[in-house]
Amino acid sequence: MNIQTTAGGITLQLADHPQAIPFSWRWLRDHGEDEASQDPVTLQRRVDSFAIDPKMPGQIQQTSAGLHITWPDGAVSELSHALLESVANDYLSKATPLAPQAFSVADDTVLWPDPADSSVKPSEPLLASFLSDDAEFAKGIEILSRYGYLVLRGDQAEAQLAQQFADRIGYVRQTIFGGMWDLAAGLTEHADSAYTTIYLGPHTDATYSHDAPGLQFFLCLQRADRGGESLLVDGFAIARDLADSDPDAYATLCSVIVPGRYIEPGVHLLAHRPVFRNNHRGVLTQVSYNNYDRAPFLLEPKQEACFYQAYGRFAELANDPARRLEVDLRPGDLLVFDNWRSLHGRNEFSGPRHYVGAYLNHEDLESKRRVLLCGKG
Ligand SMILES: [Fe+2]
Prior knowledge:
Layout: E1 2-5, E2 9-13, E3 20-24, H1 25-30, E4 59-62, E5 66-70, E6 76-80, H2 81-95, H3 127-132, H4 134-147, E7 149-152, H5 160-169, E8 181-184, E9 200-203, E10 215-222, E11 226-227, E12 230-234, H6 235-245, H7 247-255, E13 257-264, E14 267-274, E15 276-278, E16 284-287, H8 301-318, E17 325-327, E18 334-338, E19 342-346, E20 349-350, E21 354-360, H9 362-374
Antiparallel strand pairs: 1-2, 2-3, 4-5, 5-6, 7-18, 8-21, 9-19, 10-18, 10-21, 11-20, 12-17, 12-19, 13-14, 15-16
Helix pairs in contact: 4-9, 6-7, 6-8, 7-8
The protein binds fe (ii) ion.
Fe (ii) ion binds at residues 194, 203, 205, 344.
């Protein structure tokens, strides 16, 4: 990288990019990695950001590790090349914003099913290995992050394995359904369709929650006599196909805010989100679709027509059998999926099907992956 001092701070040029990126004196003082500027253990900021004189120039000295800056008040800031490079790359990726509501997902995402390659299917590690072997754990986290689901095979139908699985990734999310829950027909604690034996069409859970759980998992303790397979549909693949075939419908589902609700005695949850939520960089981050739980809302007539057309198109794609993955869990098997991406459902069943499961946070999956990739704990 090439660093030049300017009147306002520095400019930095990466080896593979022609643009000179400006860093102001204020920014440099605010982002010191030395012990006075930041706690070396927690990496939490120590410098008083709001006391910095934005016009105060520093004396730059380039070292093999990065920048050593001496300020007129005697303070010193150290900034590493790694920090400057990482921030510069982030800056460049935002400097070329995507077209509004163009489809984009993380680079290493694998969309499924792939019509060009029917063999695209992640492997199914053993639950026991995922729990005890760090390499197998890393492999499982990678599959889950890239495909949006993971099947772990097992032969011990023991409920305690569900807690061990949750602990391995993060912690069980508490909701009105409790923490770890039993899922079996006949349980009447909550009047939700999940506690019946009927077919459940593809949906995401908790459209009524401002922060819908990012992961959901089921450990099979007892298989149904007939049916009861879990159904998964890739919501990101639906988004791609909708964006390709009907960009207006895709844009509508990125912008119309749909309310979701859950109501039972003493509970009235309500949250609002578009079907496709993009993050600050325009990258598709969350799919929310649950027509069972959609709350009443009224749009201006023309917009309403666009919404029903687009939402109907989404439903058509979500219910297309060619997109559906059926997961038949045997006792001891565990299915975990990304509730921000993979729609799930269930075939009708008969017999004493018994699962235990829970919700986990999306951020804890992301955290585990960062730690495994970068080794930063
Ligand atoms: Fe569900």
